[in-house]
Automatic annotation (TrEMBL):
The keyword Transferase does not apply. One of its GO terms (cellular component) is cell envelope. The lineage of its organism: Bacteria, Pseudomonadati, Bacteroidota, Cytophagia, Cytophagales. Gene3D superfamilies: Cytochrome c-like domain (1.10.760.10), M75 peptidase, HXXE motif (1.20.1420.20). Keywords: Heme, Iron, Metal-binding, Oxidoreductase, Peroxidase, Signal. SUPFAM superfamilies: Cytochrome c (SSF46626). This is Cytochrome-c peroxidase. InterPro entries: Cyt_c-like_dom, Cyt_c-like_dom_sf, Cytochrome_c_Peroxidase/MauG, Di-haem_cyt_c_peroxidsae, Imelysin_sf. Pfam families: CCP_MauG. It comes from Spirosoma validum. GO terms for molecular function: cytochrome-c peroxidase activity; electron transfer activity; heme binding; metal ion binding. Residues 313-437, 465-604 form the Cytochrome c domain. It is found in: Cell envelope. Its main location: other.
Amino acid sequence: MKATASRYWLALMLASGLQLLLMSSFKKAAPLITPAQRTQEQFLRDIIDLDSVASRLETAIKARQSASILQLALGKTRDQYKRIEYLTEYYYPLLAKAINGPAVVEGELDDGVGLQREPSGLQLLEEKLIAYDSTQNADLLGQVSQLRQTIGKLSRLAQYSPLSDEQVFDAMRLEVFRLIALGISGFDTPISRRALPEAAIVLSSLEKSLAHYRPRLQQADPGLTNQLQQALQEAISALRTCRSFDDFDRLHFIRNHAYKFTRLLTKAQQVLIISIPVDRTRLLSASTTTLSEPDAFDPGFFTNTEASRSTAARVALGRQLFYEPILSGNGQRTCATCHRPDRAFTDGETTSLALDGHERIHRNTPTLLNAALQTAQFMDLRAFGLEDQIRDVLQNKTEMGGSLARAVEQLNSHDTYPICFKEAYTDGITAYNITNALANYVRSLTALDSRVDRYLRGLPAHLTTNEKRGFNLFMGKANCGTCHYFPLFNGSIPPAYQKTESEVIGAPATASERQVDSDSGRYLSTKLAIHQRAFKIPTVRHAVHTAPYMHNGVYQTLEQVVEFYDKGGGRGLGFAISNQTLPANKLNLTPGEKKALVAFMKAL
C-alpha cells in the first residue's frame, strides 16, 4: 500500500511539474500584441463610442430637444468621428464619405450616363440642425439612422481588416495632409466653423496611436521620441489656443508645426525600420514628407498605361510636335498658337480665335502648366486624360481642324520624324503615339516650386507681410481653399487628389455683370440639372500670367475676380441660379484683405 501510494504521489508530482512546464512554455510562446494590433483595438473601441454618441443624438431628436442641445449632441458626434477619421479615410474611403462627406448633391458620368448622388452624414445633419425645424424630425431621424447603419458597417469591416505598421504610418501622414488642406480651411465645417478644435482632436488621435510605438522608438532613438512628442503637443496647443477661425495663422502652422511633424514622423518610420511604400497607384508620392516638395506629385499618374509613361525622347518629340503645323487642317496653326509659353501657355484672349481667323471659340484658353495634375480636362471635364483632350483638339474643326490619320501619313513622309518616333516608340508613328508624345510634353510642364512653396519648406524664401496675410485669407476667411485645394490650388480633392471637381459660380456674360453667362458647361456632357453652368475648378498657380479669367474670359484682372467672389458669385449679383454651389453670402472682405489675396496669388 505504501509503495502504491508513493508511486501515486510521484506520478502526481511529475504530472504537475509537466503541467507547469507546459504552462511556462505556453506563456513564453504567446504572441505579443503589436503596436498595429493595439491601434486596431483602439480603433474598434472608438467606433463603438461613435455609435454611442450618434445614438444619443438620435434620442435627442426623438425627444424634440432644443436646437442648441441637438447642435451640441451633433458636435460630440463630429468630435468622436475625428478620432477615427485617419483610419476610416485610409481603409474605408467610401464609408468615410458617407459619414462626413460634403452636404451637396454630386453627379458623375458612368459609361456615358450621368448619375446623381444625394448627400448624407454629419455635414448634412449640421446644415439641417443649424436651421432646426421640429416638423422635419422624420427626415432627421432617417439621416441619423442611415449614419448609424454606416457606422455599423464600418465596425463589422474593421474587425476583419488587420492593420499593418506601414499602413498606419502612411495613414497618419495622409491625415496631417488632409488636416492642412481640408481641416483648417473649414472644408467640412462650413457652418459651425469648428475646424480648429476638430483639428486638435485629430492630432490627439494620432498622438494616441503613436503611443503604441513609443517604447520601440524610445529604445531606438530617445531624442527623436521626445522631438516627435513635442512637435505634436506644440501643434495641438497652436490649434487650441487660437482665438478664432479667422485669426488662425495657417501659414505659420503648416510651416512650423504640421510639416515639422510629418518630417519627424517619416524619420521615426525609418528608425523603426517600417517600410515606406513606393506606390505608383497614387498621384501624391507615398514618400513625400510635405505637400510643398516640388516632386510631391507624379505628373505621369494619369497616363493611360505604364508603357505610355514619359521618357526624355517622348518629351522632346512632344515638344517638336507642339510647334508642328502639320497637325492642323490648314498647315498654319500649332498647339503654341493658343498655348503660348510666354503667357504661361495661354493666349491672352478672352476666347481664342477659331481656325478660320474670324470666329471665336466659345471658351477661354486654360494654362497647360500643371494640367497633368488633374483627373479630367477641358472646362467642362469632358475628357478624362491628356491624350483624350489632345485628340479632341487636334480633330476639332474650329480649333486645329486636323486629322490624326492624315497626320500619321504626313509625319511618315517627313525627313526626321520617323527616326524620332522610332527612338521614342517601338511601333513608330501611330495616332496614339502622336497624342501620347504631346501629352508627355504637357506633363513636363509641371511647376510646383514657387516662393510660397520654398517658404513653406523652410528655405530662405521671402514672403511679404501682405503675401502671408493673403495666404491666410485664401485658406481661411475668404473660403478660397475650400474649392482651390492646397497645394495644387485647383479642384483636385486632397489628400488623394484623384478627383477633380466642378463648381457652379454664376459667372456673368459681360463685365457689366447684368446677366449670367448662357454657357451650359458640364451639363452638355452629363445632362444633369445640377451641372447646368458647372465648370472645372482651375488652378490659381501662375494666375498672374493667365488673364483674362473665368471660362468666358469675362474678367481682365485678379482684382475683378476677387470682387466677384466677395459679392457671393452670380446669386450675390442677383442672378436666379438655384443650383449655385458657391455660397451666395458676401465675404465682406476689406480693401486691404482683397489686396492681400491678390498679392498671395501673384506669389504663386
